[in-house]
Amino acid sequence: MEKSRGIRFGAPNFDGSFISIRRGPNGNYQLHVGWDGEKADPPRPGAGGLFETTRYSEIAAVPDPTKCGSTEARIEDLEGSQPLVETFIDSEHKTVDRLTGIIGNAAIGNLETAFFGLVDDGPLTKLSRRTSFGELPFEAESLSAGCDGWVPVYEVLNASTSGDVVLLPAARAAKTRCFISGIRGDWSVTNSNGTVQSFAEIYYGSSGDVRLRVVAADPQVPVSASASCIRLRP
Predict the structure, then answer these.
(1) Looking at the domain assignment, is residue 152 inside a domain?
(2) Per residue in 152-209, pLDDT tens?
(3) End-to-end CA distance of the chain
(4) Is residue 2 part of a domain?
(5) Which top-level group of life is the source organism from (predicted)?
């Protein structure tokens, strides 16, 4: 959650939580998570996460990995004054679109009014954030990967749950790559002592299947998450 209105992430007086996948000083990608800003009592829970990398040569049907690349997209509302902010990032699923940065108040509200993530609007994919609350600044980023002569094959597209759901059976687990594509509800809520927030994760079940799990910090305030999976080479 971000408290500093009108202040961009990285500024000395920024005060808020963040999770971001960024290019490091040597050209490698790094995961940055946490909270920057004033100390609080009790301590504010910061963001956390895990990401995996996938080479273009690992993806099914890519004809030439040397003819691939990525484009970045960004949305922001530094004053927290806009109920809907979104931008077009893809058409007819010609690229693989992933969330790479969430800074501040991504989703605050009930399941019907609060959303952050990738949205399918007919043939278009958008990076979108919607909220019913005012004065909630945020920033977000996504990365879209594409190759000449290739259209991604999605085994799962934006499957959603507020609990625990199977994305793929074990027999298909090694041939796919899954990633979280959106969240709904009030993700600012913490437990009774303010130290634990809701979380979503993609994990392997006991039988080797790929699953999406969402755990709400407060059972009385439900949240949900969505995930997609693309096909890799056999």
Answers:
(1) yes
(2) 999 999 999 999 999 999 999 999 999 999 999 999 888 877 778 899 999 999 999 9
(3) 41
(4) no
(5) Bacteria
Where in the sequence is the domain holding 26, given as residue range(s)? 7-231
- Show the tokens assigned to 128: 């979108």
Q: For the segment 75-102, what is each residue's pLDDT rounded down to a tens digit? A: 999 998 999 999 999 999 999 999 999 9
Residue 26 in domain: yes
Domain count of the fold of the chain: 1
Contacts of 94 by beta carbon, 8 Å cutoff, 6+ apart? 146, 151, 152
Q: Which residues neighbour 95 within 8 Å (Cβ) at sequence distance 6 or greater?
A: 71, 89, 144, 145, 146, 152
Burial (Cβ within 10 Å: 0-12, 13-18, ≥19) of residue 138:
buried
Residue 1 lies in a domain: no
CA distance 44 to 232: 39
Output the six-digit token pair for 54: 């996938």
DSSP for 6-39, please give it: T--TTSTT--EEEEEEEE-TTS-EEEEEEEES--
Residues 6+ apart with CB under 8 A from 60: 153, 175, 230, 231, 232, 233, 234
For residue 67, what are its two tokens? 């003819």
Total residue length of the chain: 234
